[in-house]
Automatic annotation (TrEMBL):
Listed EC numbers: 3.4.11.2
Alphabetical keyword list: Aminopeptidase, Hydrolase, Metal-binding, Metalloprotease, Protease, Zinc
Peptidase M1 alanyl aminopeptidase C-terminal domain mapped to chain residues: 566-894
Family (UniProt): Belongs to the peptidase M1 family.
Superkingdom, taxonomy of origin: Bacteria
MF-aspect GO terms: alanyl aminopeptidase activity; metallopeptidase activity; zinc ion binding
Official protein name in the record: Aminopeptidase N
Gene it is expressed from: pepN
Length: 895
């Protein structure tokens, strides 16, 4: 570790830059071994800040020359920072020329300028631009960029950067050049270049305002047949943002480029989005329905950043959720709007909440818990978290819940009216929302609402209902609390919108009338909690209802309400809110799971689910009106991570045993129903990724899984045989992978042959092969066989630790995705984890730090896991030369 690299950055230390950079001219002589970069920029002093030296960020650069106004000048190095002290006084602009070199082919961190498949790519967010040239590499310094790329023409026929192509031509020695000019001011983290042998799918579009644009999706030559869905998703994104938010495309040309070596999912560089291939490439034979959905939402996400992120950017990185939470909210709304029907929308909402609860809730309960607007970081890359993204999106959603869709739109309009072209803060966003909605609950409660940005932890809403037959009243006592998180022992009450209804004995919503209201409302009502405790009295209630709280998951909280199984079953059968209908099923299963986990007895594993519960699930499965996608979600039991998050002491093996027992019982007792569902849904004809047919594939996949699991109990060969046949001849990847999954997860002897078959079919399709690796790494552990299998997979000729997607397909799938395989009594999983974190950290700290987070929940583990986990984390922490990324994760874990 170098001096100056280890400092903590604090939000309250923000100071405006001492200089502004107005324009940048970059010239690249691209060569994988040694790329030369000439940076000519126009700077001026920031008149609002006392005079001080210019300090330019750099990281692993080789400096050749610095020129001030065309003359050599004096400078010094402070660690990696280039310091210029003798600059002209006054506020006149001056020109600085910096000549550096970097080594793209040695850039294994994949930050800055790096190689992938022989082509050049960049990744600059958050602090990668300083690996390309010396700069004020901070988001509040915005400049216009003119970029010239020079490279060998045969090897790099395509040369791209942000903005518009203004010139191109030939150079001596078989080289050529292209010059790009981006007219929009932008921070350095949005800079991008691409050079290589690429081909593009192109589409010209005219938007409703009549402007014309060229859309391009660039990929490697063999991948053009996998770009149709990406292009369609991009077109939908452009049209949707204009229709829903009045935000047009502001560029003549919008480019997406795919690379197979990428730390993150994608990057919203102005006009030149760079994507992980995983979120671009899709064709029916190689991509699943889940992949199609993910492509659509990530393409939407990056496109929507063009306004929320690029036109209005972040003042500093503590404001990251300003753009990420808002943009995730926007991509979620986009996917819901495209899904169409209320049921399909609900399915999307449920899927988002499942992810939030199994990843963000645990994060908020662990050592890395941080507010949506963090207060400090050691390495900003560690804060591209599910809290910033997904919880941030829930916070934005609560604005919409509080002020309504129209009020939200007004707030967005005001936000852009005030801040277009600026680098701003979460406070600016909140203020625009409130000012555009004067007199609203939000405006009135804004300072308190903003606690969502400053307080970490998942609030708990505890509710208790009491029916008074004589008075015909139903009283709900609702209280809120929030557990302590690192650095925040005590929390103030949040503003929590609780959308609710009361479900009558006939299954219909009871009209709601609070005691101080003149008349009743039909259906749902949103109660806004602001106090530690609130009492709500509903009048004219003729019979005891079942409360349905937090409909649509109206706030990112844990709801603690003691409903009896019969009440949950009532909601599961009748709730008019599809989210809560699903939720009732989850809570029913969760209650059983927790009871059986805590009982500790082996007998608890025999028949964990009671008859009434099974009947209720059967009724959903056989329901004549419900959509297949919704049925599949209801019939899927809560995942092991979510269950673990509910427990004070976590025994991963016990959780796994109970979950397996529940699944086995669900498989056998509903066997005939599963067979019926499979017959109903297994043939969806020619592949399209629409919600109805993907819902059917999802239910057919679950059914086949259950049927293979049931077959394992009694040696039936029919269903495993069908699954094997499907692995061989399925017409699309979703059906094929589901069939393979059914065999591998049920542990059937055909699984091995099916895996071989799959490998032979897809050995030249990296993304499909990632699935093959991942499936084996997160398969259920039986007697500890997974870790040896994982070690074996790492020796496979197609495995590489250097490729982030491949590394994650084995290591994350195992350490994050397979609790029972990972948490072994012999501690071998933890030893393996420590070895791999250290191995990765030597060349790619970001990927290493993500893997390091697999141990977040160590302190709540039962013994012997806890002590062994701690020892493994300590071993990593003690390693000399650890990156800031990993050091921050393990240090927090140990405090
Ligand atoms: N802004 C990108 C996106 O969410 C992600 C950038 C990831 N950068 C990082 N250092 N992890 O669209
Ligand atoms: Zn983003």
């Amino acid at each position: 570790m170098r001096a100056g690299q280890s400092a903590v950055t604090r939000r309250l230390d923000y100071a405006p830059p001492a200089f502004w950079i107005d324009s940048v001219e970059l010239t690249f002589d691209l060569d994988p071994a040694k790329t030369r970069v000439l940076n000519r920029m126009r700077l001026r002093r920031n008149p609002d800040v006392p005079a001080q030296p210019l300090r330019l960020d750099g990281d692993e650069l080789n400096l050749s020359r610095v020129m001030l106004a065309g003359q050599g000048c004096s400078f010094r190095m402070d660690g990696e920072t280039l310091v210029l002290e003798n600059l002209p006084e006054g506020n006149a602009p001056f020109e600085l020329e910096i000549f550096t070199t970097c080594y793209p082919e040695k850039n294994s961190k994949l930050m800055g300028l790096f190689m992938s498949g022989g082509d050049f790519f960049t990744q600059c967010e958050a602090e990668g631009f300083r690996r390309i040239t010396y700069f004020l590499d901070r988001p509040d310094v915005m400049a216009t960029y003119t970029v010239t790329l020079r490279a060998d023409k045969a090897r790099y026929p395509v040369l791209l950067s942000n903005g518009n192509l203004t010139d191109e031509g030939e150079l001596p020695d078989g080289r050529h050049f292209a010059t790009w000019h981006d007219p929009h001011n932008k921070p350095s983290y949005l800079f991008a270049l691409v050079a290589g042998k690429l081909v593009a799918r192109e589409q010209r579009i005219a938007t409703r305002s009549g402007s014309e644009h060229l859309l391009q999706v660039y990929v490697r030559p063999g991948d053009l047949d996998k770009t149709e869905h990406a292009m369609n998703s991009l077109i939908h994104s452009v049209l949707w943002d204009e229709a829903r938010f009045g935000l047009p495309l502001d560029l003549e040309r919008f480019m997406i480029v795919a690379t197979s070596d990428f730390n993150a999912g994608a990057m919203e560089n102005k006009g030149l989005n760079i994507f992980n291939t995983k979120y671009v490439l899709a064709k029916p034979s190689t991509a699943t329905d889940g992949d199609y959905d993910a492509v659509e939402s990530v393409i939407g996400h990056e496109y929507f950043h063009n306004w929320t992120g690029n036109r209005v950017t972040c003042r500093d990185w503590f404001q990251l959720s300003l753009k990420e939470g808002l943009t995730v909210f926007r991509d979620q709304e986009f996917s819901m709007d495209l899904a169409g029907t209320p049921s399909a929308r609900a399915v999307k909402r449920i899927e988002n909440v499942i992810d939030l609860r199994s990843a963000q809730f645990p994060e908020d309960a662990g050592p890395m818990a941080h507010p949506v607007r963090p207060d400090e970081y050691l390495e900003i890359s560690n804060f591209y978290t599910t809290t910033i993204y997904e919880k941030g999106a829930e916070v934005v959603r609560m604005y919409q819940t509080l002020i309504g869709r129209e009020g939200f739109r007004k707030g967005i309009d005001l936000y852009f009216q005030r801040h277009d072209g600026q680098a701003v803060t979460c406070d600016d966003f909140a203020q625009a929302m409130a000012d555009a909605n004067e007199g609203s609950d939000l405006a009135r409660l804004l300072p308190q609402f903003k606690r969502w940005y400053s307080q970490a932890g998942t609030p708990v809403v505890k509710a208790q209902g009491r029916y008074d037959a004589a008075a015909r009243t139903y009283t709900l006592t609702v209280s809120q609390s929030c557990p302590a998180t690192p650095g925040q022992p005590r929390k103030e009450p949040f503003v929590i919108p609780v959308q609710m209804g009361l479900v009558g004995a006939d299954g219909r919503d009871v009209p709601l009338q609070l005691d101080h209201w003149q008349q009743a409302v039909q259906g749902s009502h949103t109660v806004v909690l602001t106090e530690g405790e609130t009492t709500l009295t509903f009048i004219h209630v003729d019979a005891e209802p079942v409360p349905s709280l937090l409909r649509g998951f109206s706030a990112p909280v844990e709801l603690d309400i003691d409903l009896a199984p019969a009440q949950l079953m009532h909601l599961l059968a009748h709730d008019s809110d599809p989210f809560n209908r699903w939720e009732a099923g989850q809570q029913l299963a969760l209650q059983t799971a927790i009871e059986k986990i805590e009982s500790g007895a082996d007998t608890a594993l025999a028949q964990p689910l009671n008859d009434a519960h099974l009947q209720a699930l059967r009724a959903v499965l056989r329901h004549p009106q419900l959509d297949a996608a919704f049925k599949a979600l209801v019939l899927t039991l809560p995942d092991e991570d979510y269950i673990a998050d509910q427990l004070d002491t976590v025994d991963p093996q016990r959780i796994h045993a109970v979950c397996e027992a529940m699944a086995r019982q669900l498989a056998t007792e509903l066997r005939a129903d599963w067979a019926w569902a499979y017959e109903q849904c297994h043939d969806t004809g020619a592949y399209t990724p629409d919600p109805v047919s993907s819902g059917k594939r999802s239910l057919a996949g679950l059914a086949l899984h259950m049927l293979c699991l049931a077959a394992q109990q009694d040696g039936d060969a029919v269903w495993p045989g069908k699954a094997y046949q499907r692995v061989k001849d399925a017409g699309n990847m979703t059906d094929r992978l589901n069939a393979l999954h059914a065999l591998v997860y049920s542990g059937h002897e055909l699984a091995g042959r099916a895996l071989e078959r799959f490998y032979t079919l897809f050995k030249d399709e990296p993304l499909a092969l990632d699935k093959w690796f991942a499936l084996q790494s997160h398969a259920p552990d039986r007697g500890g066989h997974i870790l040896p299998a994982v070690r074996q997979l790492m020796k496979h000729p197609d495995f590489s630790l250097r490729n982030p997607n491949r590394a994650r397909s084995v290591l994350s799938a195992f350490c994050h995705g397979n609790p029972a395989g990972f948490h072994r009594r012999d501690a071998a999983g933890y030893v393996f984890w420590a070895d791999q974190v250290l191995a990765l950290d030597a060349f790619n700290p970001q990927v290493a730090a993500r893997l390091a987070r697999a141990m977040d929940a160590w302190a709540r583990l039962a013994e012997p896991y806890r002590a062994a986990a701690r020892a493994a984390i300590e071993r990593v922490a003690a390693h000399a030369g650890l990156s800031n990324d990993v050091r921050e994760v393990v240090t927090r874990a140990l405090t």
